[in-house]
């Protein structure tokens, strides 16, 4: 019987020789497998190296995105001389400047409350889930004196459903339920408040035209002055003071107009450029690791050339319009060995009082300038479908999968070859062992006959 352990154990005195012959034959047959495994190792090294390079390029890409962001809204800072009167928020389109706003009236909301129960057929509601202010099933809501009512049809005959129906069908108002009963017991009323400030009329009737609510607040507009000008009326306590500069009115100004000052700082850009330099050097270090006589796993790979070309074009970008026209003008310098460094003092001198020139040179990642060039070049490397690096990694992954398949198939072939050899060697060994036993048997028999003949 064959031994399936892979180790040959015969019974004849030639078993050791048979085992050696099997091992030598299998070793010779494994030469191709060893070649495949060596190729797989090289592919793995290239994959690891390319992934490392991709990581460095992605970090550089991220640093440039941070640089782009540093030119936006985050570069502005706002001071407010009276934070108790107005709250300031900023958005896109903001500009440097000084703005004054004086709140003269916060305004109020117009409101109505359902009439007291008793007269007019109104019911006292002690449970809003089962009772309503009127037995009617259709109501009419009039706003701002309009002769065309909003027809309100609750799904159920209770106050809760009436409130839900008003809120669903009349977005201009907010309906709620309030309890005005106090010690006398529960007395739930319908409260309707206009969502905008100002003297808005609110009227509610049943289907017959019977008034169901009284006005309890007339409402008034919020009022404020901008830059000392005339009073501005508003239906909201939020106002767009300037493009990208919004204020929320909190209370009337008690100390005169609040001064809101918007300034722009290049500190964020300076920090971002320093990070860009570090990320750039990370990419270049990775490229240099695969150059020279002792080149790394990517030595000779065209991906290195593509990345090197992109980095060279980014580093040498020039606008050609004077003033801030190159990275060098912003304090970015290169050593003889190609290491990028950033000098904040040079940057501060160039950017001082010239943020517009700085922003013009850097541009953004979609419309133009240094950042657009860099973004396009790096997208050519990093794009998930067509990027040079991403495509290279994808190709290597496919090659590695195919190599693993070939190795697995070759290993199976070798194991089958070993098993076949062992089976044949076991057969030969068994035959030899049988012959050896016969030799012993006949030798013993002849020896016994010789001794017996001698003793006659």
What does this structure look like?
- This protein is of the alpha+beta class.
- The protein folds into three domains: 34-72 and 267-393, no CATH class; 83-106 and 222-255, no CATH class; 109-217, no CATH class.
- It is built from nine helices and 17 strands.
- The strands form five sheets. The chain has a five-stranded antiparallel sheet with strand order 1-15-3-11-12, with no helix packed on it.
- The radius of gyration is 45 Å and the shape is elongated.
- The mean pLDDT is 91.
Please describe the topology of this protein.
Elements: H1 15-29, H2 31-70, E1 76-80, E2 86-90, E3 97-105, E4 109-114, E5 139-143, E6 150-152, H3 159-169, E7 173-179, E8 188-197, E9 202-206, E10 213-217, E11 222-226, E12 231-234, E13 238-242, E14 245-249, E15 258-264, H4 267-288, H5 302-315, E16 332-334, E17 340-342, H6 344-351, H7 355-362, H8 370-382, H9 388-454
Antiparallel strand pairs: 1-15, 2-14, 3-11, 3-15, 4-8, 4-10, 5-6, 5-9, 7-8, 11-12, 13-14, 16-17
């Amino acid at each position: 019987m064959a031994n399936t352990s892979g180790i040959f154990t015969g019974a004849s005195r030639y078993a050791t020789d048979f085992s050696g012959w099997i091992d030598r034959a299998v070793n010779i047959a494994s030469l191709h497998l060893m070649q495949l495994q060596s190729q797989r190792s090289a592919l793995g090294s290239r994959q690891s190296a390319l992934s490392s390079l991709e990581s460095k390029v992605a970090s550089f890409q991220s640093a440039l995105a941070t640089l782009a962001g540093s030119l936006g809204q985050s570069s502005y800072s706002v001071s407010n001389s009276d934070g108790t009167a107005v709250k300031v928020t900023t958005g896109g389109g903001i500009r440097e400047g000084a703005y004054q706003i004086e709140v003269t009236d916060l305004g109020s909301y117009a409101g109505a409350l359902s009439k007291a129960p008793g007269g007019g057929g109104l019911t006292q509601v002690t449970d809003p889930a089962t009772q309503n202010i009127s037995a009617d099933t259709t109501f009419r809501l009039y706003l701002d004196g309009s002769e065309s009512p909003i027809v309100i049809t609750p799904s159920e005959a209770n106050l809760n459903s009436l409130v839900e129906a008003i809120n669903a069908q009349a977005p201009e108002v907010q309906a709620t339920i309030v309890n005005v009963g106090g010690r006398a017991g529960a007395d739930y009323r319908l409260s309707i408040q206009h969502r905008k400030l100002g003297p808005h009329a609110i009227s509610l009737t049943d289907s017959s035209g019977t008034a169901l609510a009284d006005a309890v607040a007339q409402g008034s507009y919020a009022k404020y002055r901008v830059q000392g000008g005339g009073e501005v009326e508003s239906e909201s306590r939020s106002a767009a003071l300037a493009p990208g500069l919004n204020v929320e009115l909190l209370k009337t100004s008690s100390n005169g107009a609040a001064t809101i000052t918007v300034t722009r700082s290049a500190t964020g850009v300076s920090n971002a450029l320093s990070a860009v330099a570090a990320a750039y050097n990370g990419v270049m270090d990775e490229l240099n690791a695969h150059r020279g006589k002792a080149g790394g796993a990517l030595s000779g790979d065209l991906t290195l050339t593509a990345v090197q070309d992109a980095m060279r074009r980014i580093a040498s970008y020039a606008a050609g319009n004077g003033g801030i026209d190159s990275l060098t003008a912003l304090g970015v310098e290169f050593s003889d060995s190609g290491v990028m460094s950033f000098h904040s003092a040079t940057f501060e001198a160039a950017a001082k009082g010239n943020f517009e020139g700085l922003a013009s040179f850097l541009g953004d990642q979609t419309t133009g300038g240094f950042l657009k060039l860099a973004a396009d070049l790096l997208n050519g490397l990093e794009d998930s479908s067509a990027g040079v690096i991403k495509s290279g990694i994808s190709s290597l992954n496919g090659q590695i999968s195919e190599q693993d398949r070939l190795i697995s198939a070759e290993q199976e072939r070798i194991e089958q070859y070993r098993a076949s050899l062992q089976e044949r060697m076991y057969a030969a060994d068994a035959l030899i062992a049988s012959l050896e036993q016969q030799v012993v048997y006949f030798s013993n028999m002849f020896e016994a006959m010789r001794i017996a003949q001698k003793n006659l």
